[in-house]
Amino acid sequence: MSLTISSGFDGGNIACLDSSDPADIRLAIRKDNYSGFFQWFHFRLCGARGAECRLRIVNAGESAYPEGWRGYRAAASYDRRTWFRVDTDYDGAVLTIRHRPERDSVWYAYFAPYSMERHADLVAETLAAPIVSLSVLGRTLDGQDLDLLRIGGDAPGKRVLWAIARQHPGETMAEWWMEGFLRRLLDPADAAARALLERCVLRVVPNMNPDGSRRGHLRTNAAGANLNREWDAPTMERSPEVALVRAAMEREGVDFCLDVHGDEALPYVFLAGAEGIPGWSGRLAGLDRDFREALLKASPDFQTERGYPINSPGTANLQMCTNWVAQRFDALSLTLEQPFKDNANAPDAEAGWSPERSRRLGAACVEAIAAIADRLR
Ligand code: ZN
Description:
The protein is α+β, with helices and mostly antiparallel strands. 26% of the residues lie in helices and 23% in strands. The chain has helices spanning 116-127, 173-185, 191-199, 210-215, 240-252, 282-298, 321-329, 355-372, and strands at residues 4-6, 15-18, 25-28, 42-46, 53-57, 75-77, 84-85, 87-90, 95-99, 105-109, 132-139, 145-151, 159-165, 200-205, 256-263, 270-272, 332-339. Helix 2 packs across helix 8, helix 3 packs across helix 8 and helix 6 (282-298) crosses helix 8. The protein starts with a strand and ends in a 5-residue tail after the last helix. It binds zinc ion (ZN). The site of zinc ion has 3 residues, from loops.
């Protein structure tokens, strides 16, 4: 039997060290370009149908978030549409995936991938709605378009709401979230979406990091920049993605911003706010609380018990999108985190946290935003 391990495709990432024995396949995750970060993997295994395979990622313990491997199960798919979880364990150094493929070709990934081809399809699907237009804000360092969807036109006097995703490209659940968010927002028969669009326009960046996405990075762009540490002083040389979106925010204004991510370690859906900014106020605290309450009502997966520690006053990192936007625009600004693993409060043995759960959460966010839209200014 001759096995093949490959990752030379959109979003692929693995180095194959040895595939001579299906019971002892040795792999390593490649670092993000010009960066020490790594954790995202996505590869294809061919020629192992019926074989008891043991795939060992030997550098897992040196990855960006080793805690992410505890209680984690790798995602696998035969058709690249349905992703299921497979037996995985972590001994503190090596991540071991055990699987007996039923077909000649099987894909494995850190989470269900979201390719740039699918991104192009999502943008095209969204543009079928007459109230949506596209602004290409500029080019990335690899020469890809940075897409901004403008929903609801220019209507003066309306509030301007922003949603951005995938500053960290390996957090593919953020763009699955976008599918659910955009589809519900553009459903003309949906009451919450209609109410929202009567009062607000939206500015949506479904993928902030096309280069990192295509290169198979966890956390950085082509130049090794962690985009969510670039917001205070982005440059066109190092972080054009942030420079271009920030300039668009300055032109159009911001009354609300949601920055969508995934968290490697915590098996929960949670929000992180901007409590530590110098300009934090009773008004922002009230909006923050109201949005959390609205999302609790709208989504069974959201919770407020678990999450990051809250920044004490004045200690916010203004290099991060949520803090920079809240401070600059005196606006409600939040980071939404979804798990790579599963929702421990409502686990799914087959799929873990999944594209479908991410889409449902995106749809629920339309309702939660609609519930507070009147009070944003
Ligand atoms: Zn992130």
